[in-house]
Amino acid sequence: MDINVKSDDLSEMENAFNDSIQAGKVIEPKDWMPEKYRKQLLRMMSQHAHSEVVGMLPEGNWITRAPSLARKAILIAKVQDEAGHGLYIYSAAETLGMDRSEMIDQLLAGKAKYSSIFNYPTLTWADIGAIGWLVDGAAIVNQTVLAKCSYGPYSRAMLRICREENFHNKQGYQILAYLMRGTLEQKEMAQDAMNRWWWPSLMMFGPSDKESPNSADLLKWKVKLFTNDDLRQRFIDRTVEQAQAIGLKVPDDKLKWNEETRHYDFGEINWDEFFQVINGNGPCNKLRLKQRNDAHSNGQWVRDAAKAYAEKKKVN
Amino acid sequence: MDSNHQWPTWEVFTQKKQGAAHEHAGSVHAPDGEIALLNARDVYSRRQEGVNIWVVPSAAIIASSPEDSGSFFDPANDKMYRSPNFFKTADGLKQI
Questions:
Q1: pTM assigned to the model
Q2: Nearest CA in chain B to A299
Q3: Helix (H) or strand (E) holding A264
Q4: Structure confidence by residue, pLDDT tens digits, A157-170
Q5: What does the pLDDT look like over A83-123, one tens digit per residue?
Q6: Beta-carbon count within 10 A of A57 CB
Q7: What are the residues of chain A with a beta carbon less than 8 Å away from any beta carbon of chain B?
Q8: Backbone φ/ψ region at A74: left (φ over 0), alpha (ψ -120 to 50), beta
Q9: Residues whose CB falls within 8 Å of the CB of residue A117, separated by 6 or more in sequence, listed in order
Q10: How many angstroms separate the CA of residue B66 from the nearest CA in chain A?
């Protein structure tokens, strides 16, 4: 773009951009885009990629303690998928002009956000079930919509992720379903996980749209197609019956089917807690950052070896 | 803290099955082509999505520019006779 364009021309280009998005155009990396669009997308996509990567930590915590060889194998595959998802999204985000190393540096320095849900601890095996079912379930609701967003590389990464995410959701649900068919202790363990993960999962959709500063722009640009509240409602409507089917109680006294709206009414979300966790005061914020930094430095020898090997081959 | 050297990116193309065309899947970072292939397999083909993978240095790809797409594709614009729909045939006549 010519840096000398007048502001009139710029707003004209922006209008044309907005119109083309309204007409259903998908934006590709080399297309002209308003700086704000690029920045918002980069913010969203890098946060999303970081979430996939940090999301490996609470689950990785249980790989060695998964109750059977099959469960171990499944959990390893799931955690490996999360690494893959992080890489898909970093790769898509790089098309907006920021190197992956820069994004990763921001994460390691504690300057980048990732989904707050991963700042909660995984205390029991049932938590692995709850994460797969609820956390990945909420992610599916979000990502299915993002797969239709206006930025081509993001949308394609989401399509790929959605295809894999259903496995995560089902393996988690199955873990809880098995526990709910077990001893009283196992049932209590499953219910306890449900009690701890339900509300944080609802918070994953972000603050109510009235309080969400970026929503209006993102909706206009079709980066978001539905509001946070819409998607939260969709998640609740789909999940409540799944809970009931295996005998889990949703920890919300106000939860009630509303015949008129054809949706579930639900209780007030504790947004104070949400903002506390976002601002670094959740149960595991510091731990996650340390674990991520440790994982990064523990992998240093692998990066060094790969580089040395490539250089050695170049010489020969 | 520094995530140090950033390896170059490689564009990944996967072939779904024998006989199909290779399709762009995304990109990976790697110090060389051999490791790029291994990374591409782990990132883009964990569920038998491919029977063959190409990796190409991203810098080697030369793309047409979206701003010039009008004039660039212009030569094809006025040659509708290249489409079979351009030719009218009698109704009910069977096509080859």
A1: 0.90
A2: B3
A3: strand A263-265
A4: 999 999 899 999 99
A5: 999 999 999 999 999 999 999 999 999 999 999 999 999 99
A6: 20
A7: 28, 30-32, 77, 80-81, 84, 87-88, 91-92, 94, 99-101, 104-105, 108-109, 156-157, 160, 164, 293, 296, 303, 306-307, 309-311, 313-314
A8: alpha
A9: A135, A200, A201, A203, A204
A10: 6
